[in-house]
Amino acid sequence: MMSEISANLTVNLSTSTDEPRTGLSRTGHTIVAVFLGFILLFGFLNNLIVLILFCKFKTLRNPVNMLLLNISASDMLVCISGTTFSFVSNIYGKWIGGEHGCRWYGFVNSCFGIVSLISLAILSYERYSTLTSKRGSDYQKALLGVGGSWLYSLVWTVPPLIGWSSYGLERAGTSCSVRWTSETPESVSYIICLFIFCLVIPVTVMIYCYARLFYDVKQVGKIRKTSARKREFHVLFMVITTIICYLICWMPYGVIALLATFGRPGLVSPVASVIPSILAKSSTVCNPIIYILMNKQFYKCFLMLFHCQPASAADGETTCQSKVTVIQLNRKVEDGTARQALPQMDEKMDRLLSPESSPEPVSDSPPQMSKENSFL
């Protein structure tokens, strides 16, 4: 009888979200709090700068950049609604939000994180399709991509609230997510679907689109090697950086989740579970740097915002009216007419890969947008 009471008491204590977990030492919680404080500060500031740039410079408001804006908005929401609570909880050494706060935390952070991941995959497709298609991006497609990312995220984050799996404390006891250790058929099936549709598929789309993008840019280099060499290097650097940072931030979290689900009980220690969680949250710091500051158009606006570059230095904006695409150029390689189209292709590639658009502050006049949008 006493053993049953003791067992029940142990279960109640282990499932309560109000009790502190002993998975990490006081020093461990302090170290995690330091990392989360860094991520919170720079993640918030980096994405805030991006939002300010969008508000101040009208030349940044083109369809493809709407996806960048969506990524920054979702990353900032992660900082505000997720990293903040986890940071404070690690300072106290336990989760401070209670059971309902834990479910809310798990839901909103999963939702915002998946929005960012899907937006990155859509962005890779838009970058490739804009370069290879005769028709450029438009606001209808961009808004469809933004709305689709939120709808897709809700499809996969609402089910744990209504019975298909559930949200609960992670092993460290200071943050919440999907209950990876639950062995019920519903939870296992949900975790498998989540891993496939919210990690494997986005990664596959990114790798395919960026690989095709680099291949087509390299085909242009076969025609004029000297002028295309810098473009090839720029695209290759962007592709490698994008994929590596994506995998570093999110793949460990997915692997640990699968180990916690299908491995033996206790296989994933609290320390092993908290490191991938920190890496996933660090994406809020990396994304603005990779997708914004590596873009010359955004970088010029950034310098002008902090008065590091005079506005006159960005004068001379040109409007590219060329409709020659990489696919069309590759077809012309075979019939020997590619060199005639090369000047037009060079112009478009300059706009796509090395934009030199002149950023202008917002004025009362409506923004004048060119048909071809820069995105790298």
Provide a compact summary of the structure.
With 376 residues, the protein is mostly helical. It contains 12 helices and 2 strands. The chain has a two-stranded antiparallel sheet with strand order 1-2.
- Give the overall shape, derived from the CA principal axes: globular
CATH class membership: Mainly Alpha
Q: How would you spell out the order of helices and strands?
A: HHHHHEEHHHHHHH
Using the coordinates shown, work out and report the CATH topology: Rhopdopsin 7-helix transmembrane proteins
Sheet with the most strands: spatial strand order: 1-2
Number of helices: 12
Structural domain tally: 1
Distance between the termini: 68 Å
| Percent helix range | 55-70%
CA-based gyration radius: 24 Å
Average residue pLDDT: 76
Total beta-strand segments: 2
CATH architecture: Up-down Bundle
Q: What does this protein look like?
A:
Residues 337-376 are annotated as: Disordered. InterPro entries: GPCR_opsins, GPCR_Rhodpsn, GPCR_Rhodpsn_7TM, Peropsin, Retinal_BS. Residues 354-367 have a biased composition (Low complexity). The chain crosses the membrane at residues 31-55, 67-92, 104-123, 143-167, 187-215, 235-262, 274-294. It is found in: Membrane. There is one protein chain. With 376 residues, the chain is mostly helical. It has a single domain (24-308), classed as Rhodopsin 7-helix transmembrane proteins (Rhopdopsin 7-helix transmembrane proteins, Up-down Bundle), CATH 1.20.1070. It is 70% helix and 2% strand. It is built from twelve helices and two strands. Strands 1-2 form a two-stranded antiparallel sheet. A hairpin with a 6-residue loop joins strand 1 (167-169) and strand 2. Helix 7 (225-262) runs antiparallel to helix 9. The longest helix has 38 residues, at 225-262. The chain is globular and about 55 Å long. The N and C termini lie far apart (68 Å). The model is unreliable at 1-22, 312-334 and 350-376 (pLDDT under 50).
